[in-house]
Amino acid sequence: MPARNILVINCGSSSIKFALVHEDHEPFALSGIAERLGSTDAQVHWQQDGNKQSLLLPHADHRAALAQVLPLIQAAAGDQLQGIGHRVVHGGEHFTAACLLDNASIAAIRATATLAPLHNPANLLGIDAAIKLFPSLPQVAVFDTAFHQTLPEHAYRYALPEPLYREHGVRRYGFHGTSYRFVSQRAAEMTGLAFTASSWLVAHLGNGCSTCAIVDGQSRDTSMGLTPLEGVVMGTRSGDVDPNLHSHLARTLGWSLEQIETLLNKESGLLGLSGLSNDMRTLEQAREQGHTGATLAIEVFCYRLAKSLAAMSCALPQLDGLIFTGGIGENSALIRRKTVAHLKLLNLSLDDQANASTVRGAAGPIQAHGHPRVLVVPTNEERQIALDTLALLDA
Ligand code: ADP
């Protein structure tokens, strides 16, 4: 059987990230992003065999942008495109695994949009465009929340009156599940442990950040909740704040719900604390130059992250390793060092040289000799989505 290719699509409200994933080769045959869709300066950037190209597509919507890259994708796949895998952020309690897209599953994703009004409608735009452009290809949805459907009830319930859960789905769901599955399987492979008989703490640190406790191949707790706002400090999201902050801001400053939502999701986190940037590279450079806001943002980020990991350790019977992943987790030796320094009670300690050199896509252990394992494992959500898509096609 010729090797198979899956197109992976991750759609935002004004962007589409795409990657052509080959089942046997790690590097993407083709990958890119269409951004600022719907505006005059909409454009698509892609790379193939190390060559980068861009094209302006004024006023292109999701479908027009996908139609533009379609011939490139088909050529790169050598007419061996077997299916399309879509990232969908929220699957609610309905989806405990990836599913084939048909009218019923699309209706269920639409019904879940009340839980993720910023994300699921955008994901559906990509699904709709792809089905119209590739009507004969099987298409699959892979959910960020699905991996966390194994959380025990004591981890997923909020201390709120039960009808809010039973009638309105107010509970903790968790996100980044595709990444957690990928890196914890990789960690088990790297260490020779069985995935289904190993226990991991994981910190996924990208623009969004969260932590997870994984036991015997299942998520047992995670820091994000009903929405991706709960938990640790992120690029522009606050993470945990006192829930009364909402009423405090409304009462004392007269702020609307929309203003408070924008504050907590788009103006807080590293950006809000530093007053400078949501980008960790920028903050590390500014800290070097003595910028007080950047220094504080990094201190708060690491302390809150360590606190969250310590909390997650309650869900583990033993610790086989702490995994760092995501752009910050894979590249920032500083953040890893400062976070682990707060976790002495877990006996964690890093080897400075291994920590400094395990960056830019390198994977491996970075703990000091005689201390519990700490691993850097680059995530690859696109690959996991492609593997899930192929598994469903084979089923
Ligand atoms: P996304 O969640 O959008 O996929 P990424 O996983 O790419 O995001 O992570 C983006 C974050 O990773 C940014 O804060 C960026 O500054 C950070 N990052 C990337 N490279 C480095 C680096 N060398 N040092 C520190 N932070 C880095």
From TrEMBL:
GO terms for cellular component: cytosol. It comes from the Bacteria. It is found in: Cytoplasm. Keywords: ATP-binding, Cytoplasm, Kinase, Magnesium, Metal-binding, Nucleotide-binding, Transferase. Its cofactor is Mg(2+); Mn(2+). Substrate binds at R87. It holds the Pfam family Acetate_kinase. The active site is at D144 (proton donor/acceptor). Pathway: Metabolic intermediate biosynthesis; acetyl-CoA biosynthesis; acetyl-CoA from acetate: step 1/2. NCBIfam families: ackA (TIGR00016). The keyword Kinase applies. One of its GO terms (molecular function) is magnesium ion binding. Its EC number is 2.7.2.1. CDD domains: ASKHA_NBD_AcK_PK. GO terms for biological process: acetate metabolic process; acetyl-CoA biosynthetic process. The keyword Translocase does not apply. The record marks H176, R237 as: Transition state stabilizer. ATP binds at K17, H204, L205, G206, N207, G208, D279, M280, R281, G327, I328, G329, E330, N331. Belongs to the acetokinase family. This is Acetate kinase. Catalyzes the formation of acetyl phosphate from acetate and ATP. Can also catalyze the reverse reaction. It catalyses: acetate + ATP = acetyl phosphate + ADP.
